[in-house]
Amino acid sequence: MDLLVVGAGEIGRWVADTVAADDAPVDASVAFADREPAVAGDAAADRDARTVDADGDSTHDAVCLAVPMSAVPAAVEAYAPRAEEAIVDVSGEMTDALAAMREHAADLERASYHPLFAPPRVPGNVAVVVDEGGPTVDGLTASVEAGGNDVFETTADEHDAAMETVQAGAHAAVLAWRLAADPVREEFHTPVSAALEEVADTVTEGSPAVYAEIQRAFDGADDVADAAAEIAAADDEAFAALYERARGDREGRDRLE
8, 43 in Cβ contact below 8 A? Predict the structure, then answer.
């Protein structure tokens, strides 16, 4: 398989390393395209890959879009003509991505993948919606699974609704706690605050542009703000009711597992 990875950042490099791994079930070669040629060149130099012009006309068996969520629809339109068998994305938003693929790549295999981790923390869970399956998408999925990842199927609606909780809401809650927190000596930390401190460190080690994209793409932050305000205003009785609601929500999540 000849795979064009559009976007040579961390996630694009993860795609290349995963699909072209020595133990991958599909024999694959990788080309990078990026609006910044130096970035594509750097990615290719670190692995057995080549670069192609982002505005060129080279064609490939498959195209994988590893670009920001907001750029996916335009990227689908631009790169679908360069895919001979399949076009997929790994952006993290599925509804608009798949709609663009149906419009501009109706004759191709189509899938949207979302690695639910940052590349330094591989392997992990990878959500996928296969909109139009076939051997090329099957090969890509098999390579992701061969990398130790748990690939699970979902729908675009289910995925994007989940992202409101696990990304937009979670990130807002963690960042708000960090912004509101005063520095304290290490000895004062409780198990809860120490865990939050660690999570906040994880969230703030990445790129703010990535997290801003998530907040723009998905609702969730307002719900967190509303819940925090409700807790802050609650008297003892109201707080107890909120606490029990949270306990019930936890038990409901446990039943889903």
Answer: yes
